[in-house]
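EI: anyone free to look at a 343-residue chain?
SC: sure, send it
EI:
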Amino acid sequence: MAKAKKLTKGQHRRIKKNLAEKLNKSKQEVWQDSELGDAEQGIIISRFGQHADVKSQAGDIVRCNIRRTVDSLVCGDNVLWRPGKETKHSISGVIEAVHERHSLLSRPDVYDGVKPIAANIDQIFIVSSVVPAFNPDIIDRYLVATELTGIKPIIVLNKIDLLSADNQELIDRHLSLYDEIGYEVLKISSKHQQGLQAIEQRLLNQTSIFVGQSGVGKSTLVNKLMPELDLVTNEVSEMSGLGQHTTTVARLYDFPSGGHLIDSPGIREFGLWHLTPDQVDQGFIEFQEYFGYCKFRDCKHQDDPGCALQKAVEDGHINPLRFASYQRILASLGSNTLTSRFK
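SC: here you go
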């Protein structure tokens, strides 16, 4: 008798997920057309499996079922929904359709492929900090993602009150480099509310999202900007030096002076392994004029003879720090070990 094959952890995970989805669908209320009111416009505040919270034009937040014909739905989507004439088990309406998006931010997932995070974003605040550790490689990965989506990036260094003689020179060198390339850089301290006014001005009438490693102070920053939210925050772990994950789902909030703010789950590693080398190339804007001038068409931009990028580095036209980061990203392609982790 053949021995039964042992299921892998990934197979167990998929089976569990599929079962949960089937159970969730079986519990969904089926709304008849006569039980629904007229269609209205709304925006997705947050999504929870087969349900989502919708903000109506009147400003109310309503939990709705999602029609099975809706293929993809994320925080920030503009939707067409219909209110129920009665509330059924806390569900007060149905989402009928999703309007076309002008932008979409996604992350790679080792099990689910490319997973969308939020839609219709105007700008991304890439938050780094002095503690747990300033990591320009993470910033560069986010910059690649923003260049591919066309979303404006703004680099934010948080916790500047913790700058010291040991780390300031290195951090300033990297931030000056981003400024020279053309990216906007803001230095703030959420703890001492230093530099927050500059962020408030940029939030006006925009849909913005804060991204970055866990522990850089995203939720603390949002609390300072919108204290009425009182988001839960955790300190950096003294044992690992890593931030402790707090936010679990992306959620959209209204900024008091106008505009929207999306708080997203903390990401410790932002993998780009799902991209092609050509897509990574697009993410390094200061390299563009040198692509296509290498001696060999299949140049890998490592130790290849006649590499135009290597020559630009030698001539001082490309910063070696950025070029090294570019090479590390290329080396990570095809490896799903650098995936986004939500913990």
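EI: Residues 276 and 333 are 7 Å apart (CA to CA).
SC: 👍
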